[in-house]
Amino acid sequence: MKLFLEIIKGRKKTFVFLVALLAVNIGIYTYVAFFQEPRLELLRKSWVDMRRQTESGGSWDPAAVFSQGTTDLATFQTRMPTKKEYARLVGELFEMAADNGLQVKGISYKPTPLKEEKLLLYTITLGVAGKYAAVKSFIADLEQLHDLITIDHISLDGDAATEESVKMQLQLTAYLRMEGQ
Question: How are beta strands 119-131 and 103-114 bridged, if at all?
Fold first, then answer.
Protein backbone atom coordinates (compact mmCIF):
# COMPACT_ATOMS: atom_id res chain seq x y z
CA MET A 1 0.00 0.00 0.00
CA LYS A 2 2.93 2.33 0.79
CA LEU A 3 4.31 1.77 -2.68
CA PHE A 4 0.97 2.74 -4.17
CA LEU A 5 0.84 5.96 -2.12
CA GLU A 6 4.40 6.83 -3.16
CA ILE A 7 3.49 6.37 -6.84
CA ILE A 8 0.48 8.66 -6.35
CA LYS A 9 2.64 11.34 -4.63
CA GLY A 10 5.19 11.17 -7.43
CA ARG A 11 2.64 11.40 -10.21
CA LYS A 12 -0.16 13.57 -8.84
CA LYS A 13 -1.19 15.00 -12.22
CA THR A 14 -1.43 11.57 -13.79
CA PHE A 15 -3.47 10.27 -10.85
CA VAL A 16 -5.84 13.27 -10.97
CA PHE A 17 -6.24 12.79 -14.71
CA LEU A 18 -7.06 9.08 -14.26
CA VAL A 19 -9.60 9.85 -11.51
CA ALA A 20 -11.22 12.52 -13.71
CA LEU A 21 -11.31 10.10 -16.65
CA LEU A 22 -12.92 7.47 -14.43
CA ALA A 23 -15.54 10.01 -13.26
CA VAL A 24 -16.35 10.99 -16.86
CA ASN A 25 -16.63 7.32 -17.83
CA ILE A 26 -19.03 6.63 -14.92
CA GLY A 27 -21.05 9.71 -15.87
CA ILE A 28 -21.38 8.61 -19.49
CA TYR A 29 -22.34 5.09 -18.47
CA THR A 30 -24.99 6.44 -16.10
CA TYR A 31 -26.44 8.70 -18.82
CA VAL A 32 -26.58 5.87 -21.37
CA ALA A 33 -27.94 3.26 -18.94
CA PHE A 34 -30.58 5.38 -17.21
CA PHE A 35 -31.62 7.94 -19.83
CA GLN A 36 -30.68 6.98 -23.37
CA GLU A 37 -31.41 3.22 -23.40
CA PRO A 38 -34.93 3.53 -21.91
CA ARG A 39 -35.80 6.30 -24.41
CA LEU A 40 -34.41 4.25 -27.28
CA GLU A 41 -36.43 1.21 -26.20
CA LEU A 42 -39.59 3.35 -25.99
CA LEU A 43 -39.00 4.70 -29.51
CA ARG A 44 -38.28 1.19 -30.82
CA LYS A 45 -41.56 -0.13 -29.39
CA SER A 46 -43.47 2.80 -30.85
CA TRP A 47 -41.92 2.15 -34.27
CA VAL A 48 -42.79 -1.58 -34.12
CA ASP A 49 -46.39 -0.73 -33.15
CA MET A 50 -46.72 1.67 -36.09
CA ARG A 51 -45.28 -0.94 -38.48
CA ARG A 52 -47.78 -3.54 -37.24
CA GLN A 53 -50.64 -1.12 -37.67
CA THR A 54 -49.53 -0.27 -41.20
CA GLU A 55 -49.02 -3.91 -42.19
CA SER A 56 -52.40 -4.98 -40.86
CA GLY A 57 -54.16 -2.14 -42.64
CA GLY A 58 -54.63 -0.18 -39.44
CA SER A 59 -57.84 1.70 -39.00
CA TRP A 60 -57.95 3.13 -42.52
CA ASP A 61 -61.34 3.91 -43.93
CA PRO A 62 -61.41 2.68 -47.56
CA ALA A 63 -63.74 5.50 -48.59
CA ALA A 64 -61.38 8.10 -47.12
CA VAL A 65 -58.37 6.51 -48.84
CA PHE A 66 -60.22 6.44 -52.18
CA SER A 67 -61.34 10.06 -51.76
CA GLN A 68 -57.81 11.19 -50.91
CA GLY A 69 -56.40 9.26 -53.88
CA THR A 70 -58.94 10.83 -56.25
CA THR A 71 -58.10 14.30 -54.93
CA ASP A 72 -54.36 13.67 -55.29
CA LEU A 73 -54.80 12.40 -58.86
CA ALA A 74 -56.85 15.46 -59.84
CA THR A 75 -54.20 17.75 -58.34
CA PHE A 76 -51.46 15.86 -60.20
CA GLN A 77 -53.30 16.13 -63.52
CA THR A 78 -53.85 19.88 -63.16
CA ARG A 79 -50.12 20.38 -62.54
CA MET A 80 -49.14 18.42 -65.64
CA PRO A 81 -48.51 20.80 -68.56
CA THR A 82 -50.65 20.67 -71.71
CA LYS A 83 -49.48 20.04 -75.26
CA LYS A 84 -49.50 23.82 -75.87
CA GLU A 85 -46.72 24.20 -73.30
CA TYR A 86 -44.30 21.94 -75.19
CA ALA A 87 -42.59 24.93 -76.83
CA ARG A 88 -42.06 26.52 -73.41
CA LEU A 89 -40.59 23.25 -72.14
CA VAL A 90 -38.12 23.03 -75.01
CA GLY A 91 -37.23 26.68 -74.45
CA GLU A 92 -36.48 25.89 -70.81
CA LEU A 93 -34.18 23.05 -71.88
CA PHE A 94 -32.25 25.39 -74.20
CA GLU A 95 -32.09 28.06 -71.49
CA MET A 96 -30.83 25.59 -68.89
CA ALA A 97 -28.15 24.38 -71.29
CA ALA A 98 -27.02 27.96 -71.95
CA ASP A 99 -27.11 28.84 -68.22
CA ASN A 100 -24.75 25.92 -67.58
CA GLY A 101 -22.35 26.96 -70.35
CA LEU A 102 -23.33 24.15 -72.74
CA GLN A 103 -23.85 24.30 -76.48
CA VAL A 104 -26.93 22.53 -77.83
CA LYS A 105 -25.75 20.36 -80.72
CA GLY A 106 -29.13 19.03 -81.79
CA ILE A 107 -32.62 18.17 -80.68
CA SER A 108 -35.26 15.82 -82.04
CA TYR A 109 -38.58 14.67 -80.69
CA LYS A 110 -41.24 12.11 -81.36
CA PRO A 111 -44.76 12.46 -79.94
CA THR A 112 -46.63 9.33 -78.87
CA PRO A 113 -50.27 9.67 -77.80
CA LEU A 114 -51.63 7.52 -74.98
CA LYS A 115 -55.35 7.91 -75.70
CA GLU A 116 -56.65 5.87 -72.77
CA GLU A 117 -54.65 7.93 -70.26
CA LYS A 118 -55.29 11.15 -72.23
CA LEU A 119 -51.56 11.84 -72.27
CA LEU A 120 -49.04 12.75 -74.90
CA LEU A 121 -45.48 11.46 -74.49
CA TYR A 122 -42.70 13.35 -76.21
CA THR A 123 -39.48 11.37 -76.58
CA ILE A 124 -36.81 14.06 -76.80
CA THR A 125 -33.23 13.41 -77.90
CA LEU A 126 -30.96 16.28 -76.95
CA GLY A 127 -27.27 16.66 -77.74
CA VAL A 128 -25.12 19.11 -75.78
CA ALA A 129 -21.39 19.77 -75.49
CA GLY A 130 -19.28 21.51 -72.88
CA LYS A 131 -17.22 20.94 -69.77
CA TYR A 132 -17.92 17.89 -67.64
CA ALA A 133 -18.86 19.98 -64.57
CA ALA A 134 -21.38 21.92 -66.68
CA VAL A 135 -22.91 18.66 -67.92
CA LYS A 136 -23.33 17.43 -64.33
CA SER A 137 -24.91 20.74 -63.35
CA PHE A 138 -27.29 20.56 -66.33
CA ILE A 139 -28.46 17.09 -65.29
CA ALA A 140 -29.03 18.32 -61.74
CA ASP A 141 -31.08 21.24 -63.10
CA LEU A 142 -33.13 18.81 -65.22
CA GLU A 143 -33.99 16.85 -62.10
CA GLN A 144 -35.30 20.04 -60.48
CA LEU A 145 -37.77 20.86 -63.28
CA HIS A 146 -41.37 21.07 -62.13
CA ASP A 147 -42.59 19.51 -65.36
CA LEU A 148 -42.99 15.76 -65.62
CA ILE A 149 -39.81 14.74 -67.46
CA THR A 150 -37.84 11.54 -67.08
CA ILE A 151 -34.23 10.97 -68.07
CA ASP A 152 -34.32 7.68 -69.96
CA HIS A 153 -30.78 7.44 -71.30
CA ILE A 154 -27.49 9.35 -71.00
CA SER A 155 -24.51 8.88 -73.27
CA LEU A 156 -21.21 10.71 -72.68
CA ASP A 157 -18.35 10.97 -75.15
CA GLY A 158 -15.01 12.60 -74.42
CA ASP A 159 -12.49 13.44 -77.13
CA ALA A 160 -9.38 12.81 -75.05
CA ALA A 161 -8.58 11.69 -71.55
CA THR A 162 -6.86 14.99 -70.77
CA GLU A 163 -9.64 17.29 -71.98
CA GLU A 164 -12.51 18.43 -69.79
CA SER A 165 -14.83 18.80 -72.77
CA VAL A 166 -17.51 16.14 -73.29
CA LYS A 167 -20.46 15.56 -75.56
CA MET A 168 -23.66 14.23 -74.08
CA GLN A 169 -26.69 12.67 -75.71
CA LEU A 170 -29.78 12.66 -73.52
CA GLN A 171 -32.99 10.81 -74.17
CA LEU A 172 -35.84 12.35 -72.20
CA THR A 173 -39.55 11.67 -72.02
CA ALA A 174 -41.91 14.58 -71.36
CA TYR A 175 -45.44 13.79 -70.25
CA LEU A 176 -48.10 16.27 -71.35
CA ARG A 177 -51.89 16.41 -71.12
CA MET A 178 -53.79 16.41 -74.36
CA GLU A 179 -55.64 19.65 -75.14
CA GLY A 180 -58.88 20.18 -73.25
CA GLN A 181 -58.19 17.52 -70.62
Answer: antiparallel
